[in-house]
Amino acid sequence: MALPRITSPHAKGNNRTQQVMLQVLLATLPGVLALTWQFGPGTLINLVWASACALGFEAAILALRQRPVGFFLKDYSALVTAVLLALALPPYSPWWLTLVACGFAIVFGKQLYGGLGQNPFNPAMIGYVVVLVSFPLAMTSWPAPHTVGLLDGLQHIFGLAALPDGWTQATALDALKTNKSLTIDELWAQHPAFGHFGGVGAEAINLAFLAGGLYLLYRRLFSWHAPAGMLVSLTLMSLLFWNGSGSDSHGSPLFHLLSGATMLGAFFIVTDPVSGATSNLGRLIFGVGVGVLVYVIRAWGGYPDGVAFAVLLMNLAAPTIDYYTRPRTYGHRKPTRGFRMGE
């Protein structure tokens, strides 16, 4: 029987991981620009500080483990973790918040399990959830768009001054979560956080991350299964439980797609090849599970946005998903279920 000739995974050289990480960093650029346009230089400051923290923690742990520091830093995986964390954290987050998030992401989310390729959970989401649970006030202090300058932002980040109350506001997901009496139309008209379909600024930011995600799909850095599963299931859940503009409404499908960290999660988090499912069917199931859990947490949970919690919960389920979605063994008509002597 003639076997097909298939290119091996290492055909592009020893720096394949580095190339992939660089492409991911490039794809985040539209989102970085959108966040900077909406909230000022806080996102850029977060990026620089988070990158320094993550690389420092990575180098320290590698040195303690007596591993070649330069070799592993050059794969840029720690830098990607730092960038995703910086994009998820509120702009102008205090320096210590970013430091704690990066420390937990690198040490407990990645290196504790042996480094890249062995972590069962998404490192960036580990760091994000730790600071979200530990410091909820700091994690919900989002600035109002177009209000903070560079000097004021630096002073706030490094503890030299606090931002005035008028410069911070609840996000659209926060406002919808705490709404008890106003209809959606009234809430939309009265609250400054709401835009055309989602939150002010969040619409453009989510569309920017969508553009970056489509670029990664075009470059075939991941398959469409996990992002499509998440976005379709989130849309169906929000459509199923959407009751129009009543005071108990949980928001329209467009609202959920263009608010919070939806597109960042769909294209940059659930597509993690290490902590997610491995087969195409498994990735689809993984994405569907994340989308359902995001809506459940947003609508009935204790947090306004549930992307990080949903991803970590599905990371726990990924081995089980892989077990039941194993692809057909090459050369066999059906998946092998066991082994008998003589076969």
From TrEMBL:
Its EC number is 7.-.-.-. It is an enzyme of class 7 (translocase). The modification FMN phosphoryl threonine is found at residue 171. Keywords: Cell inner membrane, Cell membrane, Electron transport, Flavoprotein, FMN, Membrane, Phosphoprotein, Translocase, Transmembrane, Transmembrane helix, Transport. It is a multi-pass membrane protein. It is found in: Cell inner membrane. The complex is composed of six subunits: RnfA, RnfB, RnfC, RnfD, RnfE and RnfG. Belongs to the NqrB/RnfD family. This is Ion-translocating oxidoreductase complex subunit D. It comes from Pseudomonas zhanjiangensis. The gene is rsxD.
